[in-house]
Design goal:
The chain is mainly alpha-helical and 79 residues long. Helix content is 68%, strand content 0%. Helix 2 crosses helix 3 (45-57) and helix 3 (45-57) packs antiparallel against helix 4.
């Protein structure tokens, strides 16, 4: 891997994010906020936790994350 100014490239950055468990939570929060068109409310963080588990279990499939969001009762209640 090519080293440039102390940064080892996007592949390592992605690996570090996945290993640090930040990618699933950040992805779930970002998609929910975009779909809802607003910030997440305090009572919705349980739902976010469920989405994080689903996303990680699907080996980080964004298709499965989107499907989990739009099929969830929490999303349907908001609409």
């Amino acid at each position: 891997m090519r080293r440039c100014n102390g940064f080892l490239g996007p592949a390592l950055l992605a690996l570090l994010e996945v290993a640090g468990n930040r990618l699933p939570e950040c992805s779930a929060k970002t998609l929910v906020q975009r779909f809802l068109g607003r910030d997440i409310h305090e009572d919705e963080y349980g739902w976010i936790d469920e989405l994080v588990v689903t996303f990680a279990a699907s080996e980080f499939s964004y298709r499965e994350l989107v499907k989990a969001i739009i099929m969830s009762p929490a999303y349907r209640r908001v609409l």
